Amino acid sequence: MTEQYDFIIVGAGSAGCVLAERLSENGRYSVLLLEAGGSDRRFYVSLPLGYGKLFYDKRLNWSYQTEVDPGLNHKPDYWPRGKILGGSSSINAMVWIRGHPSDYEDWGRIAGDSWGWEAVCRAYRAIEDNEAGGDTYRGSGGPLFISSNKRDLHPLVDRFLAAAQTAGHKFNSDFNGANQEGVGIYQMTIKNGRRNSTARAFLKRAIKRKNLRVITRAHVTKVVLENKRAVGVEYTLDGLNKTVFSKREVVLAGGAINTPQLLMLSGIGPADHLKNHGITVEHDNANVGKNLNDHIGINYTWQVSVPTYNDILRPWWGKLWVGLQYAVTRGGPLAKSINHAGGFFRTTADHARPNMQLYFQAFSTVIPRVGERPLLTPDPFSGVSIGLSNCRPTSRGKIELRSADPFEAPKITANALSTEQDVAEMLAAVKELRKIANQTPFKDIIVKELRPGIELQTDEAMIHDLRERSGTVYHPSCTTRMGQDPNQSVVDPSLRVYGVDGLRVCDASIFPTLIAGNTNAASILVGWIGADKIMEH
Asked: Which pLDDT belongs to residue 42?
């Protein structure tokens, strides 16, 4: 018997869960949601600070690794991506940043008014249930609760904010409001002390509907095409190969890595590249997998003379205490992201908008375990970090097939810090970190600079350190970008794949340009507007 649904969604991530909820809402359409990962019902997924435990867990994480990167001193970079209901919204740091309004003005110029700031702001207000209440910018009563993050902030947040303001950065009470620039407290996708992923906020509302079916551990291997129309997908489940058909559309929501990989496996992409892997070319589009854009970040770290999270999260008795605190009150360090505060700034006045993002952490990890990226283990002394990432990098990478085997990870060429502009901006930005740290009252608690160390003073030495210690901040995008010109894009402004009927892409891969800030909000936005586009047809 042929299995058919009106809509097949591939990927239950940040955008896919939104799509599933909205497309099934009116009850008129049958919807199938296929997810390669498993359930999000895991303790460390719901525990906000538990995301460190998910960083290397291959049961929940694709755990990608890039090619050796000349821009990172000829080292590969590690790229975790969610392989679980909720996708990367189930393993990320939960910071809620929409992006600068001008980012969406750029989108509007590239893809039309429905992606411009006015339309996008309306969509965000419909999505949000902001703890601070609704206003011209914030939403109230939407499906996604956004925490104001004012409870249980570490006391050192006040020192950081005061020092940053002394260094010339204005206080900003809402990075998602009228102005993005300045320093302040980050809003979070946390609700009642638990991670508020898209699986929790959207899919949980829909999963009991009779017209929605969700299949986990279903690895989609190919889009089935007939006469340049998507009519279904092939997937594996429990070692068996299955095919399911769509009456209306197939929607790919696998993210900036998996979506271009699946398109190419299905014969949609650069013709020569597909032929080299023995794949029949269904539609030649050189843009599939190209234009990879990602934010690159680095931390500067100091030993300090007052207690930080290191002092409570490292010893056994401290872990017991914060565990009890969380169990009784749903509060304390475990109920938060490690990034309590941060901000946005311009490295020079020549920039019309912020080009750097800040992150403050009352925590340090300069002594990782063997083979572990500095993230998971607090240092055995009081330490703090101020991190940054670039907002609009000019470096571009690409996603390619490594083989025609759908179970082999694709080839990721990041090309981080491959332009002089990116290096110059990062160099100016890390100097700003030292400027902030040298202000009262922050400098009053500093014992010494641990990373990179105060002995590094020349531009040459600091650039070498940048290349040695920088890495992704987990925001890959733009690999099947949207646009009105099919010669420069993969999907049109309605997210339909050029050259193929019945097939759309709806995830961060369609970003025309990378926004300033964390990308989870924008990925959810794409799912929301994407559902509107589908329903219009």
From this structure: 95
Is omega for the bond preceding 101 within 30 degrees of 0, making it cis? no
**Catalytic site includes residue 100:** no
Indicate whether 369 pLDDT > 70.
no
Residue 117 sits at φ, ψ, to 5 deg, of: -60, -40
| pLDDT score, position 368 | 56
Work out the burial of residue 242: count CB atoms within 10 Å of its CB; fewer than 13 is exposed, 13-18 middle, 19 or more buried. Answer: middle
First-to-last C-alpha distance (Å) of the chain: 28
Express each pLDDT in 523-534 by its tens digit: 999 999 999 999
Does residue 129 have a pLDDT over 80? Answer: yes
Helix (H, G, I), strand (E, B) or coil at 501: strand
Cβ-proximal residues to 488 (8 Å cutoff; 6+ apart), any chain: 287
Instruction: State the catalytic residue, choosing from 273, 295, 340, 475.
Output: 475
Place of tokens 């809003």: 187
CA atoms within 13 Å, Cβ hemisphere of 385:
23
- List pLDDT tens digits, range 198-245: 999 999 999 999 999 999 999 999 999 999 999 999 999 999 999 999
Residue 71 region by backbone torsions, left for phi larger than 0, else alpha for psi between -120 and 50, else beta: alpha
- Dihedral of CA 310/314/318/324: which sign? positive
What is the arithmetic mean of pLDDT over 442-461? Answer: 97
Q: Cα–Cα–Cα angle for 386, 162, 474, nearest 5°? A: 25
CA–CA distance, 232 with 224 (Å, rounded to integer) = 5
Asked whether 31 and 23 are in contact (CB, 8 A), the reply is yes
* pLDDT of the residue at 131: 97
Question: Nearest 5°: phi and psi at 513?
Answer: -140, 160
Phi, psi (5° rounding) for residue 201?
-80, -30
**Is 175 in contact with 27 (CB distance < 8 Å)?**
no
What radius of gyration do the chain's Cα atoms show? 22
pLDDT at 374: 42
Q: Which amino acid is at 143?
A: P
pLDDT at 537: 80
What is the percent of the chain with per-residue pLDDT over 90, rounded to a whole number? 96
All domains of the chain in start order, with CATH: 1-61+80-145+190-291+477-537 (3.50.50.60), 150-185+296-390+418-469 (3.30.410.40)
CA distance 102 to 119: 13
Taking the C-alpha atoms of residue 289 and residue 291, their distance in angstroms, rounded to an integer, is 7
DSSP string, 356-400: EEEEEES---SSPPTT--TTSS--SS-EEEEEEEESS----BEEE
User: What φ, ψ does residue 185 adopt, rounded to 5°?
Assistant: -95, 135
Max CA-CA distance within the chain? 73
Is the confidence at residue 377, as pLDDT, over 90?
A: no
